[in-house]
Amino acid sequence: MAPLSEEEENYVRLALLLKGVTPRAVRTYFDREFPPTSLPSTLSTSHNTLLDLKLNRVINQAQWNLLYPRNGRFCGGVKFHQKLDIYKSSNQWIRRATTTRETTPSSDLARIKCYRNKLAHHDNNTIDRTYFNAAWRDISNAVRRLGGETMYLECQDLKVKILDQSNREIILEIQQSMKETKELRHTVDNLGMELSRVTENLRKLQTSNNDLQTSYNTLQTQHSKIMESLKDPVPWNIKGI
User: Fold this and answer.
1) Angle, nearest 10°, between helix axes 129-147 and 22-33?
2) Per residue in 78-94, pLDDT tens?
3) InterPro entries this protein is in (predicted)?
4) Would you give the DSSP letter of residue 20?
């Protein structure tokens, strides 16, 4: 594999941070707030509250099945922070959390969520130095508050460590993901264009239908007049005389 440029390395390091370290920090915070041993009883006592969230579409059916499996087998905390994302924030709150210095757990979770979304929608596999340093500072400080000092030191080590052959798989995975993302966006763009054409055709059909309806109404009026005239026992030519 050819050596990575600084911008490509920045992308890989940030991906490793967000995919490898931050999930463990969130898991640590989750287990601290909801100890695995007491989580089943907490879910039991909070059933009605969670049901309201499901009815209001904050929790979807797949997430509900993780909380309350149909087979009755509780999945445990690890599955929650791997698959259950019921932390939903408004765009306004996420912007506030990422542009201010608030250090509450909610702000840190929103901050991590924001950077994960930005990375997922990044157009290429390069990140410039300025953005990289700012993002790394925000994310690693959030990791420190959520997961502790040891994880923060792991972040600092990851920032400067040499990316050797052991990172080949993650790099190839990122490149493949970027390729699939571009193909998906191309497909979405094509679907958008096709939708525009269909919408325009529907508009034209609606216009034609309105014209036909107008013509039909005119014919109906004329037909009514003719039928009315046929009811007169005196033919029109005789009536003229």
Assistant:
1) 30
2) 445 444 444 444 455 45
3) HEPN_DZIP3
4) I
pLDDT on residue 158: 92
Work out the average pLDDT over 207-226. Answer: 84
What predicted TM-score, i.e. pTM, was given to this entire model? 0.58
User: Tokens standing for 156?
Assistant: 């600092």
CB 150 within 8 A of CB 156: no
- Per-residue burial over 76-90, b if 16 or more Cβ lie within 10 Å, else e, is ebeebbeebeeeebe
pLDDT tens digit sequence for 168-195? 566 666 666 667 767 777 788 788 888 8
* Residue found under tokens 């979405």: 188
User: In terms of C-beta distances under 8 Å and separation of at least 24 residues, what long-range contacts does 37-44 make, across chains too?
Assistant: 39/74, 39/76, 39/77, 39/80, 40/74, 43/67, 43/68
